[in-house]
Amino acid sequence: MSHFRALSTTVLAAVAFTFGGCSEGAKASDQQSGSFKVALLTPGPVSDRSWNGGAYAGLMAIRDSLGAQVSHIQTKTPAEFDENFRQYGAKGFNLVFGHGFEFQDAALRVAPDFPNTVYVTTSGTSVAKNVAGVNFAFEEASYLAGMLAGKLTKSNVLGMIGGTELPPVKRSFEAFEQGAKATNPKARIIVSYIGNWDDASAGKEQAIAQISRGVDIIFQNADAAGLGVFQAVKESKGARIIGANANQNDIAPDHTLGSVVIDLPHAFLLIAKEVEKGGFTGKVFSLGLHDAVVTFVPNPRLSGSFPLDLLNAIDSTRKEMIAGSFAKKLLPDSAQPAVTK
């Protein structure tokens, strides 16, 4: 739909072309360019067409837009968080992204030893002199996705499948449930976690189990493991899915209702430009609908069959969120992120 902002096809194409050059495991992929040096640690493969793939596209956007020298490492264990943060600090990198909530503690441990390197953790809220977090308002777009799912479900049973039970994932699931019940008070929710972010077979098994319990729409946020959820939905008659983190509408175009998208290239560029200016002091970047970083993108292949009044309600709610006038409190105070340092 034209009134929703999606990731550009050029960005998605860039991801497709750069997967082959990315690093997997402990080896870094260094691409030489300018004097501004930016690195990325991802917890999973950038071939996931989701969280990690979007981050790698962001790294490429920094390289192409700012002429930066870039490097990427896929980390396997928490010990590698510290090791690689230190490695990039010792090499004089200006900016290092730890892509995920789980990188925060390592950033706080390492940062004091490398004061000239800025460490940024996505979905993180930890702050120090040269440590910043990025709080994506994922729950806003998740609420909109829930509104759609609540209205379109035929069984009144909706599923949510996550990789692991991280706070940002829980917040988005809570918001999805609130959105679903706003359009369908009878909606019932089933939540399950795979236990990892990489096992597509386990993701498929979780989806099959949910579908057997009457779930007809699944909101997944499981990175590479989520590809197994897509596969289960494609093979199940009547099941549909909502993607997360990237525009996943083309993974199963006849079954995907829409995607909750984080435009990570846009977000990474915003942050990199601020760091490149110099004099950066740690803070939490809060990015959401109002920054055009997070959005909900209905699948244009299917959206023509969605009730017009539903699309209008979603668009109206989106505009209220952007304007700051949305009255519904998405989350209890206890669930809100807090700056830890």
Structure explained in plain terms:
With 341 residues, the chain is an alpha/beta fold. It has two domains: 9-137 and 263-291, 3-Layer(aba) Sandwich (Rossmann fold); 138-261 and 297-307, Rossmann fold (3-Layer(aba) Sandwich), CATH 3.40.50. It has ten helices and 13 strands. It has helices at residues 9-18, 51-66, 78-90, 104-110, 138-152, 167-183, 200-212, 226-235, 264-276, 308-323, and strands at residues 29-31, 37-42, 69-74, 95-98, 118-122, 131-136, 157-162, 188-193, 217-221, 240-245, 256-262, 284-287, 294-298. A seven-stranded mixed β-sheet has the order 1-3-2-4-5-6-12, with helices on both faces. Strands 8-7-9-10-11-13 form a six-stranded mixed β-sheet, sandwiched between helices. Strand 4, helix 4 (104-110) and strand 5 form a beta-alpha-beta unit. Helix 1 (9-18) packs across helix 2 (51-66) and helix 5 runs antiparallel to helix 10. It starts with 8 loop residues before the first helix and ends in an 18-residue tail after the last helix. Mean pLDDT is 88; it is low at 1-28 and 331-341.
Topology of helices and strands:
Elements: H1 9-18, E1 29-31, E2 37-42, H2 51-66, E3 69-74, H3 78-90, E4 95-98, H4 104-110, E5 118-122, E6 131-136, H5 138-152, E7 157-162, H6 167-183, E8 188-193, H7 200-212, E9 217-221, H8 226-235, E10 240-245, E11 256-262, H9 264-276, E12 284-287, E13 294-298, H10 308-323
Parallel strand pairs: 2-3, 2-4, 4-5, 5-6, 6-12, 7-8, 7-9, 9-10, 10-11
Antiparallel strand pairs: 1-3, 11-13
Helix pairs in contact: 1-2, 2-9, 3-4, 5-6, 5-10, 7-8
